Structure to design on (434 residues):
């Protein structure tokens, strides 16, 4: 096994950043393949906390190459802010970051366009970063790419044209915001000169790396429930966060994605609107939110919290093809006397075995729960399977049984060493250093 994809099995924030950081040592390249600065991947190293949005989490390891693939939408100003924060923490970003010349450029007027839908009654609770409108322009074949940003002749007029189009549309829908386009051109052109040395054809870079026997780690953003095709449409993001995106978003062929690992919390959260069958709207939801510090790392919004949803995981495993999962934040459940797990969905009294396609059906889902005993003692920081309390092992084994997927790794705290890597698991075999 050489190349691995780490992706979210639920609705994002599963702890992908922690896992990527944990595994990076065993790889040469860490690659983001979709999304933008709507992502927030938190990494805790001792008393230092990093929240990465665009730059792959692997950048924190000396000597590794971090790659922003063609599938992303990049706000160059947000990217520079992040680069500067990393540089001030002593990280040699200029040496180790590479950016695809085919990634799309996110403009301030994309955020204005987003207000058309997000200010109205059909809002889905986005991060308001302009992500959706930027992907719309990509699919609409009118977007600008990083290669265009670097083209000093072409870029200014192209931005004037696209911004004017965005503002005309916005005004037609009653959004009166203005954008100083000449200021945008100045700021974006200055940003272009800063990132110019980092930009290349990253598909070629990665093809050469693979020929030289290097190992690639793909870092998904968001999660299966937010994937544009497989998620809870329309309450999702505008990119392919599932495994297919790792190929289209980097130019690395699917045959080179050797192992896929799904990351899931021991419970479920989601931020923003949309169906959430196992949401706990009672004191359990509050308890999980407080213990798990479930507040958005990008927008600070409280995350909606609820129970583990096995049907969602089964669907996620099917569309991504993973055979091993990482169960994170087990320690958050430490205080609970009883823990619920959704094992099936029922609609109008009938059990359904597939993930309903519409939000109307999902809103009618009644989760079928099984109740398990809690362990009521601390699992924080435990790094050996045998040291987990019996009830915690039973809980994890129940999740394995219900999803049909092994829990090859269990996370018991935000830090690297607060992790159980299970001997003999597929997870261990796939991630072993060579
Ligand atoms: P990502 O977007 O998937 O990378 O996840 P986020 O970083 O947005 O959210 C996960 C949060 O949980 C972060 O604050 C992590 O530091 C934290 N975290 C990750 N794993 C664990 C764990 O096993 N236990 C606890 N208590 N916190 C964790
Ligand atoms: P990471 O990578 C959780 C959600 C937003 C909203 C929907 C659409 O940290 O897991 P967008 O701005 O993308 O158009 O918003 O998607 N969302 C996330 N939720 N984690 C994320 O990223 C998210 N990125 C977007 O809250 O519901
Ligand atoms: Mg996050």
């Amino acid at each position: 096994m050489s190349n691995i994809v780490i992706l979210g099995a639920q609705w994002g924030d599963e702890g992908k950043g922690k896992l990527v950081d944990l595994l990076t040592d065993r790889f040469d390249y860490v690659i983001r393949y979709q999304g933008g600065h709507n992502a927030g991947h938190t990494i805790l190293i001792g008393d230092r906390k990093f929240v990465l949005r665009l730059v792959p989490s692997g950048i924190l390891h000396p000597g590794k190459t971090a790659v922003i693939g063609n599938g992303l939408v990049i706000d160059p100003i947000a990217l520079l802010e992040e680069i500067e924060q990393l540089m001030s923490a002593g990280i040699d970003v200029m040496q180790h970051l590479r950016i695809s010349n085919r990634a799309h450029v996110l403009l301030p007027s994309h955020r204005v366009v987003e207000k058309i839908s997000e200010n109205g009654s059909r809002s889905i609770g986005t991060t308001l970063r302009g992500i959706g409108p930027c992907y719309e322009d990509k699919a609409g074949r009118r977007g600008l790419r990083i290669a265009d940003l670097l083209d000093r002749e072409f870029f200014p007029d192209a931005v004037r044209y696209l911004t004017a189009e965005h503002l005309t549309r916005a005004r037609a829908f009653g959004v009166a915001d203005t954008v100083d386009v000449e200021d945008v051109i100045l700021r974006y052109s200055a940003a272009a000169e800063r990132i110019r040395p980092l930009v290349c054809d990253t598909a070629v870079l990665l093809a050469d790396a693979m020929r030289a026997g290097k190992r690639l780690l793909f870092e998904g953003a968001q999660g299966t429930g937010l994937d544009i095709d497989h998620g809870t449409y329309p309450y999702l993001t505008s990119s392919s966060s599932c495994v297919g995106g790792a190929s289209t978003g980097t130019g690395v062929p699917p045959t080179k994605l050797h192992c896929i690992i799904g990351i899931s919390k021991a419970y479920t959260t989601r931020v923003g609107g949309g169906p959430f069958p196992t949401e706990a709207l009672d004191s359990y939801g509050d308890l999980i939110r407080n213990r798990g510090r479930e507040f958005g790392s990008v927008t600070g919004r409280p995350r909606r919290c609820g129970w583990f949803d096995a049907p969602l995981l089964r669907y996620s495993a099917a569309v991504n093809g993973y055979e091993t999962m990482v169960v994170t934040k087990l320690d958050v459940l430490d205080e609970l006397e009883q823990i619920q797990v959704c094992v099936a969905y029922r609609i109008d009294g009938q059990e359904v075995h597939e993930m309903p396609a519409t939000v109307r059906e999902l809103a009618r889902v009644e989760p079928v729960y099984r109740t398990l005993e809690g362990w009521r003692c601390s699992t924080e920081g435990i790094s050996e399977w045998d040291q987990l309390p019996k009830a915690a092992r039973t809980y994890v084994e129940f999740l394995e049984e219900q999803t049909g997927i092994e829990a090859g790794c269990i996370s018991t705290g935000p830090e690297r060493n607060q992790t159980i890597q299970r001997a003999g698991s597929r997870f261990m075999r796939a991630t072993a250093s060579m």
The pocket of magnesium ion (ligand 3) is lined by residues 12-13, 39-41, 297 (CB under 6 Å). The two ends are 9 Å apart (CA to CA). The first helix runs from residue 16 to 23. Residues 246 and 312 are 21 Å apart (CA to CA).
